[in-house]
Amino acid sequence: MKTNAYAAQNATTPLAPFNIQRRDVGKHDVQIDILYCGVCHSDLHTVRSEWQGTTYPCVPGHEIVGRVAKVGKDVNKFKEGDTVGVGCMVDSCLTCANCEEDLEQFCPDTIFTYNSPDKHLGGITYGGYSESIVVDKAFVLKIPKHLDLAATAPLLCAGITTYSPLRHNKVSKGQKVGVVGLGGLGHMGVKLAKALGAHVVVFTTSPNKVEDAMRLGADEVVNSKHADEMKKHLNSFNFILDTVSAPHDINAYLVLLKRDGNLTQVGVPPAPLSLNVSSLIYGRRSLSGSLIGGIKETQEMLDFCGKHDITADIELIQIQNINEAYDRLVKSDVKYRFVIDMASLQQAIT
Ligand code: NAP
Ligand code: ZN
User: Could you tell me the pLDDT band of residue 264, with boundaries at 50, 70 and 90?
Assistant: First the structure.
């Protein structure tokens, strides 16, 4: 099936219209007409090959919300017309120990939504900056009915990537939780940590985000460039979630943890970060990483967001403006997630 999309042909030229193939709907498959797709900083890292390993042409996008157009004969859970979501994964082996524990993101054979080997058509997978996608039913999510669809798209990556470590670290009422970086992931982290009952402190490098941080649910906001403001929080956090996409000093945050506190890194700066191990040793603190979340937990997160009326704060863009949106992401100029209105793709190609 010929499908319109937007692709990067290499690491330096702008994304532009491109035609891709989608497979025919197999018996376990769901074909989805894409309505909205969020713009994650991982899209940008991949498109510009900041992590290396990008295969071109690259069609990014893994925060997909759309409508079911067709289902395979063994699909009962979804039917034509349902509103559904697809996040960062479209397949995995479903039988390994990680898959059996609903942690498909750690399966050695996970197929990510874009830039992964495509076992059906050869080549690589193409993501959500496109008019339609065909996905195995096991990787399709149900969207709570009353949520705004465009603002729900970012939950499929930014939402689960922040929800999963908050839950894994048992963030609960009364705990002091830090969120570093107020971008797409960070602002979801604030909303979710608040909904879990935490006292939330945002660390930002952007003074113009202070008011928004409070509106989004933060109890305190710290300008991370001001050492005196940072010092006030020494040894005080149960948990810190670091969402920063660029090189920065994690040691400045590790020392803010209480004894046995944990800092989980979800931001993936292109270059290694340096670690002063003393920050861990004094206080038996720990440093972890976390990768999105499994499908079961993603559905749990969507249902949690449905219950608590949580969606992203978005700026809806036309796909023609995607390159400008990327430039703004690099400048931390996003409030707080760009979402592509996929209806614009039709105009972009005519
Ligand atoms: P984003 O919207 O661009 O937000 C990143 C934020 O980091 C910026 O808004 C900014 O916040 C802060 N920041 C940027 N440059 C900085 C610098 N030089 N020093 C300090 N702070 C800086 O990006 P995102 O979509 O939330 O993604 C964040 C990172 O998470 C990316 O690296 C992405 O690839 C990664 N990611 C990881 C996973 C996972 O599973 N682990 C999933 C999705 C994304 P302030 O303006 O508040 O300082
Ligand atoms: Zn993402």
Answer: very high
CA distance 146 to 302: 12
Closest ligand to C-alpha of residue 181 is 1
Q: Is 233 in the pocket of ligand 1 (CB under 6 A)?
A: no
Residue 66 has which token pair? 């759309």
Q: Is the CB of 166 under 6 A from ligand 1?
A: no
Residue with CA at minimum distance from ligand 1 atom 17: 246
pTM, to two decimals: 0.98
The tens digit of pLDDT for each residue in 268-296 reads 999 999 999 999 999 999 999 999 999 99
Quote the tokens at residue 4: 């319109």
* Spacing of C-alpha 263 from chain mean position: 18
Domains with residue ranges and CATH for the chain: 2-157+312-348 (3.90.180.10), 159-289 (3.40.50.720)
Cβ(159)–Cβ(144) below 8 Å: no
Q: Mean of the per-residue pLDDT values for the chain?
A: 97
From ligand 1's centre to the CA of 346, what distance in Å? 30
Q: Which residue has the least CA distance to atom 35 on ligand 1? A: 267
Ligand 2 center to 10 CA (angstroms):
20
Is 329 near ligand 1, meaning CB less than 6 Å away? yes
Which residues, 6 or more positions from 335, have their beta carbon under 8 angstroms from its beta carbon? 209, 212, 313, 315
How many angstroms separate the CA atoms of 71 and 74, rounded?
A: 8
In the chain, what percentage of residues exceed pLDDT 70?
Answer: 100
∠ Cα 85 87 92 (to 5°): 115
Is the distance from the beta carbon of residue 291 to the nearest atom of ligand 1 less than 6 Å? yes
